[in-house]
Amino acid sequence: MGNDQDAGLSPAQSKALHRLAGIMIPADADYAVPPANDPAIFADILRSLGGDRTLVLAAIDALGPDFPDLADAQAEAAAMAFLASGHASITALSRTVLQCYYRDDRVLIALGMEARAPFPKGHVVPQGDWSLLDAVKQRTPFWRDDRRA
Amino acid sequence: MTIRHDMVDVLIIGAGASGAAMAYSLAETKMRILCLEQGEWIKPTDFPANGRDWEARRWTDFDWFPNRRGRVTDYPVDDADSPMKVANFNGVGGGTVLFTAHWPRMHPSDFKVNTLDGVADDWPIDYWTLEPFFEENDRMMGISGLPGDPGVPPRFPPLPPVPLGLTGMAYARAMNKLGWHWWPSDVAVATQEYEGRAKCINLNHCTPGCAQGAKGSVDITYWPLAIRSGVELRTRARVREITLNEHGMAAGVIYYDAEGQEHFQPAEMVIMACNGVGTPRLLLNSVSGKFANGLANSSGLVGKNLMLHPWPQVSGYVADKVDGGRGPMTNLWSKEFYETDTDRGFVRGYTMQFSRSAGPVAEAFLAASTGRLPWGKDHHRVFRTRLDHKIQVGIACEDLPEEHNRVVLDHDNCDSNGIPGAKIEYRLSENTQRMMEHGIARATEILQAAGATDIYCPRNSLNSPGHLLGTCRMGNDPARSVVNAWGRSHDVKNLFIVDGSVWVTGGGVNPTSTIQAIALYVADQIKQRLATLFD
């Protein structure tokens, strides 16, 4: 489940976050993607809490101590209700989960992307159809010339 | 014990857009020029695009909000009392390290708002005075763009425009359908190899720095040339205050180095280039018997008239894939609603900025935080309709100067050297709000014409472009301005200001091009007036 002690989380907090992440982004066989509580992704989440740690812990607290042990349907209902609640911690929680999920190789490849840093290869952007500009080129200048005011 | 240094002829505070241009221009005088910068050099290998965590670092060490970035070289800015947040960067290159590189100029009408529209004040200089400096600056920064735009005065960017791309074509077709003006944006991005800079390879959104070196940040444009010409740039040198001598002239500055050691640097002339928050902060922190309310503040206007460019963003999703986060974010502009038309219900106007989108992390985060990406089972299906499908129009609104919008000192939040931070107090005016709503409605029409659905514009989290303007305005009347028409303090005749603080009004454009043109103009004035500079 990742190294929760290094992340400053108790085992119970880590268990709750693990379950919450898996509900936020579950696995999907149709898209060939893992859940957000996949071991590698969850370990990345724990490593990456950084400045959001306090707010992520607040989110876990808000779900209550029983959350990790709820039945699946109940846990999902509780998590969804919390995520829809507008709680002040949700932005930080979302950022923490999403920034690790969407840099996982398997997830990126499933999206049709290359699993790499942008530099040094970069990307190709097509020039596009510059003839679209022809109509604008015909327009008379319309900026206000203060010398003629 | 304070370390005392030898006198320099010119001391520039701040190594960002204006400080770099000033240093470069003055270097030909062969005066002894020193620039003090509180931040550090950023190496190309430091930039996020080098690593797999490139998107996440926009929320940590390369965040444009100083409080969240929290580098030791940053100072705190309390912006809780403002709907607009303060963005900046402290390091060699300043805000240009983290800017989007969009490069419009102020328009001629922007300098004559009172004469033409009966609001605020005219500038003491005009567009045509600055025109040669705009041109020089475009060459120095390596600007890409396309001449012939009927929406702006003639200008001649040295490099061809960034690609239109799939996103640009979606906007272009929509704008042609509506019959509204659009043009490829001028951008400080090298689309070809230029003066030793590599050409753009479309890494991603330009904002968190360019590992390729294609973005024209001044650490790679002006500074190498200035240093080669003999200018000294001293980093991790955080100025606490500007001191006065017995004649009421600036004597020099007290600053701290990286170890917290205090230094005194004497200078014949002090030039401030610390941006529209940093400059008033430093002046207000420079209190003396003669200037109990802050240095050069006999007008009481230091810190007042803050302008921030409210910038609503209207977004939607199109069915066909577009460029997503690949390529420079800035793509096109429109000047259709820039010049005043009072039938619209407000004075002045706005530039529309058409942008490419973001990578998967940012796209998912933005969609989720606006309720457009569900959690749970449907997450993956919906995300595939979001990533690489978003188009987004930003509305760069001109906010007029108002004295109650201001920068004050925050004695409760100090930087790592114990210097009081800055606090922002800012309200949106009725004119600005009407302008914003007009722009949001027009942008919505554009996105609809492009076939976008699920169009939205969050009103409660305005994009903060990091444009910090107006807090030490220029003018001919010492009672109504802080510096004169060529940047010299009315009160302290060897003290100059060249950053965005001196702006009288803000226009509706990203300001860096005009900030640097003004810095080059002031430098030129200094060079022409050397014999009588302090008279």
Structure description:
Chain A has 149 residues and is mostly helical. Chain A has one domain (11-116). Chain A has seven helices and no strands. The longest helix of chain A is centred in the first third of the chain and has 14 residues, at 11-24. The mean pLDDT of chain A is 95. Chain B has 535 residues and is an alpha/beta fold. Chain B has one domain (3-41, 53-199, 210-530): FAD/NAD(P)-binding domain (3-Layer(bba) Sandwich), CATH 3.50.50.60. Helix content of chain B is 23%, strand content 17%. Chain B has helices at 17-26, 66-69, 113-117, 127-141, 165-178, 222-228, 275-285, 360-369, 379-386, 430-449, 512-528; strands at 3-4, 8-13, 33-36, 77-81, 183-184, 232-234, 238-244, 250-256, 262-272, 313-317, 330-334, 350-355, 390-397, 406-414, 420-425, 453-456, 495-497. In chain B, strands 1, 2, 3, 6, 7, 8, 9 and 17 form an eight-stranded mixed β-sheet that branches. The radius of gyration of chain B is 22 Å and the shape is globular. The mean pLDDT of chain B is 97. Classes of the chains: A mainly alpha (149), B alpha/beta (535).
Main traits of this protein?
heterodimer, A: 149 residues, mainly alpha, 7 helices, 0% strand, B: 535 residues, alpha/beta, FAD/NAD(P)-binding domain, 8-stranded mixed beta sheet, 6-stranded antiparallel beta sheet, 11 helices, 23% helix, globular
What's this, in brief?
Chain A has 149 residues and is an all-alpha fold. In chain A, 46% of the residues lie in helices and 0% in strands. Chain A has helices spanning 11-24, 39-47, 53-63, 72-83, 90-101, 105-110, 134-137.
